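Good morning,

Both structures are done.
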Amino acid sequence: MLAVKEGPGAKLGKQFKQHGMWHLAVENDHALDTALYLLVIRPLQTVSATADKVSKGEIDLPAVEVRGRDEISDVTASFNRMHVSLAKALRMLDQ
């Protein structure tokens, strides 16, 4: 059985245990982790990895796919615009 530590959430944890709802809290926690990974972490990892490649001189990369209409997609679209501008500027310097 899981021990409920003292702290701000201890009372809520004890209530969950008493009512047999602890497993629901754990399942919801896993669902939240999965959603956070799919909606925030993975897209930002993709932008970060592409930014790292661009910073090392790889400018001929495809644009990062923009999905949705949230803050993460705004950051991705901004990165893509910056990448295109940087590539154009570097090509102008080479001429």
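Second structure follows.
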Amino acid sequence: MTDYIAQVKAFVLDEFLPDVAGNQIDDDDDLLAGGVIDSLGVLKVLAWIEDEFHVPVDDLDFALENFRTVSAIASFVAATQSVSDVSRS
């Protein structure tokens, strides 16, 4: 999951915090409460997950807790990848 954390962190920094160094954001910082990602930002993250990892995100997966931190997003991606891998088998 470390690879997912790095990918998610890079995306969050590029899209939402372009002037912030990577070491200034912790994997468990609350991106929603901190105002880094708003409701439109969550949609942007969802679209990026679908494009980057080639997995559809179901409406049932849309829980804000999945998008609150870099770690939560990475865990969501890992779980989504696992489900996608199983359904392709």
